[in-house]
Amino acid sequence: MSKKIAILPGDGIGVEIVAEAVKVLEHLKSEGLDLELTEAPVGGAGYDAAGKPLPDETLALVKDADSILLGAVGGPQYEALPRELRPERGLLGLRSELGLFANLRPAILYPQLADASSLKPEVVAGLDIMIVRELTGGIYFGEPRGIRTKENGEREGYNTLVYSESEVDRISRVAFDIAMKRGKKLCSVDKANVLEVSELWRETVVKVGEEYNDVELSHMYVDNAAMQLVKWPKQFDVMVTKNMFGDILSDAAAMLTGSIGMLPSASLDANSKGMYEPIHGSAPDIAGKGVANPLATILSVAMMLRYSLDQPALADKIDAAVGRVLDKGLRTPDIMAAGCKQIGTVEMGDAVMAELA
Ligand code: IPM
Ligand code: MG
User: Fold this and answer.
1) What is the pLDDT of residue 258?
2) Residues with Cβ within 6 A of ligand 1?
3) Does 260 score more than 90 pLDDT?
4) Which domains does the chain have, with CATH numbers?
5) Which residue, 53, 62, 282, 346, is most buried by CB atoms nearer than 10 A?
6) pLDDT in the model for residue 80
7) For 25-35, how does the pLDDT look when each residue is reduced to its tens digit (9 = 90+)?
8) What mean pLDDT, rounded, does the chain reach?
9) How many beta carbons lie within 10 A of that of residue 202, not counting itself?
């Protein structure tokens, strides 16, 4: 049966990098994988096309799709819009409307890129961490929220950091299951020394852990986790954490690997329907210049094949093709190193295609 894939390029470099990933999907189709690709606008592009960041037609499309490939959203031209019309709302709307509560953000160092990391090679060599970020709860979605005026006329902003036991339970299970398939080590990151919500988080993770005796569970405060990530990142296997902590730690972890332009992500619902996207943003500063690195988006296609389409062999093929392109010394500017050949977005996509063919 044909699998419906919604293609949402979004804004900025999203358009350029998704075009390269679509080449890979088209190639898989030509090899016999039954896919139906449909493109739709989201983010600033959604606003331009239909007056809102998550247009009704786009929402209907993604609800009906088996999987979604997203580029990135956002751009300076949209920053003055009212908050509910900003591109980021489109992304947050996709996550909440589709119930994509489990965000998997791997941080893997390709051996070919060891020199691209700002950390010493011995600190990052062989790095392979999976950050499991809760994606539909916490302070990103908690109510009440807003900006209000106090009696003395001063304005104050407020948000709510709230997690129910069931939300922590389900994200913990995802993390434990992943740990079981990897190094069987899980570190839960919280701020239980200060926040009640973290106290309940920790209690709940411990309770779920009783069902996973084979996994070594540890806990770390988020400030220490940030420090440990840059001090000795290889101590981590799988990390699980709240929405906002995961946002911050995953950017830090990404940079350990040399470039945020290399890292894919998956956002999954309870039935493994997923949205796949590079973890970097729309990079307006380099948009339209043909220099963005499409590899994170191409690797996101590999994650889609692995987690939603049940095609692990094809996923391996894409991962291997990317590895061979790097072996040949081909580099976009973000991962450029001495002795390598610098190429642009389209050439990088073509290089992966050549390896796949
Ligand atoms: C991410 C991004 C988003 C987030 C923004 C664009 C809303 O930083 O996916 O990490 O904060 O979740
Ligand atoms: Mg982020």
Assistant:
1) 80
2) 88, 91-92, 247
3) no
4) 1-101+269-357 (3.40.718.10), 110-258 (3.40.718.10)
5) 53
6) 96
7) 999 999 999 99
8) 96
9) 17
Q: Atom 8, ligand 1: which residue's CA is nearest?
A: 247
Residue corresponding to tokens 């908690």: 142
Closest approach atom of ligand 1 to CA 251: 10
Whole-Å CA distances, 270 to 132, 167, 274:
14, 11, 9
Mutate to test the pocket of ligand 1, among 247, 251, 267 (most ligand atoms within 8 A of CB): 247
Supply the pLDDT for residue 348.
98
- For residue 53, the CA-to-ligand 2 centroid distance in Å is 18
Residue from 14, 42, 29, 17 nearest 309 by CA: 29
What is the β-pairing status of strands 155-158 and 185-190? unpaired
- Cα(173) to centroid of ligand 1, in Å? 23
- In the structure, ligand 2 is a single-atom ion and the residues with CB under 5 Å from it are 247
